[in-house]
Amino acid sequence: MFYRPSEGHGLPHNPFNAIVTPRPIGWISTRSSDGTENLAPYSFFNAIAYVPPQVMFASTGTKPDQDGSKDSVTNIRDTGEFCVNIVEYGMRNAMNVSSNGFEKGVDEFERAGLARANCETIACSRVAAAPAALECRMTQIIDLKGAANILVLGEVVGIHMRDDCVVDGRFDVLKYQPLSRLGYRDYARVTDVFSLARPDD
Description:
By secondary structure, this protein is mostly beta strands.
């Protein structure tokens, strides 16, 4: 099968959503200029550089109570800060609750029953029990092609790692089993790993 996205695929669901998978989930916490906390998951998320460490996430779509974006993007535009909380399999239900399109001003930490902790280098909260959290300062916000497609880039200025996830000097993903987004409403978790030596090692 071949199709041009501009002409449609003729299938009941968009296959593009299932082709680029698995995708890590950036659970983005922000604080608005009036002090309201927000927490929302984004599956268009990844690390993009080592030195300095940098990440990106993309927001698609809008909310009726925001001006052409979502709460996360609005808060980041106003404050220049955000935190990426890493989602473990055990937090899948709380993450799903926080994906709801709550009205502006609703605190997703409270709705999802999540304890929060203060960040060290930025003025917003993080998910206290997350296996890792990346405190970020926004470097760029880029409007992408298409309606309400917005790319947020940030430099990681502080990193939290849960103590039980650090084993023999390495961050061990099997200790928490990262949750990833597949297509449609499907997810997966990492339950085993293997190593490959690069030819130039």
